[in-house]
């Protein structure tokens, strides 16, 4: 496989992608079926322009679904650590979606938190004297003024762990979120994928390409878990009773598959 010049961007990777899809066909099919249910109902969600809670919930749904779809594109190409990183991003979005869906007043707090974060970034640019930031520094004050003054609304600290526990997703945080954090932050564990060792654990060579035969099933299972969580939240917020049967079947199939990996 000629990957020397383009790495994972090489068109020669297509054959490998097909092999991965075939080898782990059941795991990919589970994510795809769950994703398909979201695709089927998301276009018919009716959101009044005055309903900020539902507006924000749907935006988060789109973001999380796109994150998971992107993770699949990476997983089937042997980029399992990178796929895990995106699933972890999806967990973050799911926790936020749960807060928005379950707490009617959270959407305004969340938007206020977003403005606070923007102000913090712009102020950091203004204070930084690095020449490379000259252009940004020149427009930062104007951007800051457009954000307006600090809101009188009490702005919460963004504490994903706390929020996860408040909405009943503490187990998801402790397991999936924490497990995939090493992939996001380049911890030692995922780096092992890039080093081949002998039977005694001694390093033999670096792994530059997809020839390490990565197993994406754990990542795909967690990707499915995130999508199922999205479906449950949207089903309750929008009263989507017509998808109950499909949702229950997907959950049952997921539990059987996940138990088989344990």
Summarize the amount of helix as a percent range: 55-70%
Biggest pleated-sheet summary: 2 strands, antiparallel
Strands in their spatial order, largest beta sheet: 1-2
Elements, N to C (H/E): HHHHHHHHHHEEHH
Let me know the number of strands. 2
- Give the radius of gyration: 21 Å
Structure report:
With about 260 residues, this protein is mainly α. Helix content is about 65%, strand content about 5%. The chain is built from twelve helices and two strands. It has a two-stranded antiparallel ribbon. α4 (about 80-100) packs parallel to α11. The longest helix has 24 residues, at about 50-75.
What is the structure about, briefly put?
This protein has 262 residues and is mostly helical. The protein is 67% helix and 3% strand.
Keywords:
262 residues; globular; mainly alpha; 2 strands; two-stranded antiparallel ribbon
Walk me through the topology.
Elements (H helix, E strand, L loop, with lengths): L12 H11 L1 H18 L9 H24 L4 H23 L3 H22 L6 H13 L13 H7 L3 H10 L1 H4 L3 H4 L3 E3 L5 E4 L10 H21 L6 H18 L1
Antiparallel strand pairs: 1-2
Helix pairs in contact: 2-3, 2-11, 2-12, 3-4, 3-11, 4-7, 4-8, 4-11, 5-6, 7-8, 11-12
């Amino acid at each position: 496989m000629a990957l020397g010049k383009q790495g994972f961007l090489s068109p020669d990777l297509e054959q490998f992608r097909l092999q991965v899809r075939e080898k782990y066909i059941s795991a990919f099919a589970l994510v795809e079926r769950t994703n398909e249910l979201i695709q089927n109902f998301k276009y018919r969600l009716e959101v009044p322009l005055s309903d900020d809670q539902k507006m924000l919930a749907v935006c988060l749904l789109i973001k999380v679904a796109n994150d998971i779809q992107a993770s699949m594109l990476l997983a089937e190409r042997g980029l399992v650590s990178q796929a895990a990183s995106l699933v972890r991003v999806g967990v973050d979005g799911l926790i936020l979606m749960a807060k928005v869906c379950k707490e009617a007043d959270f959407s305004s707090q969340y938007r206020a938190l977003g403005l606070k974060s923007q102000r913090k970034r712009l102020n950091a640019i203004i204070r930084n004297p690095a020449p490379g930031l000259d252009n940004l520094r020149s427009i930062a004050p104007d951007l800051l003024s457009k954000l307006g003054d600090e809101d009188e609304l009490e702005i919460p600290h963004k504490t994903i762990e706390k929020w996860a526990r408040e909405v009943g997703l503490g187990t998801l945080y402790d397991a999936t979120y924490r497990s995939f954090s090493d992939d996001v932050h380049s911890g030692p564990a995922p780096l092992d994928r890039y080093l081949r060792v002998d039977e005694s654990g001694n390093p033999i060579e670096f792994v530059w390409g997809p020839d390490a035969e990565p197993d994406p099933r754990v990542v795909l299972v967690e990707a499915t878990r995130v999508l199922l969580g999205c479906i449950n939240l949207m089903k309750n917020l929008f009263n989507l009773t017509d998808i109950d049967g499909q949702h229950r079947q997907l959950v049952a199939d997921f539990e059987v598959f996940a138990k088989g990996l344990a």
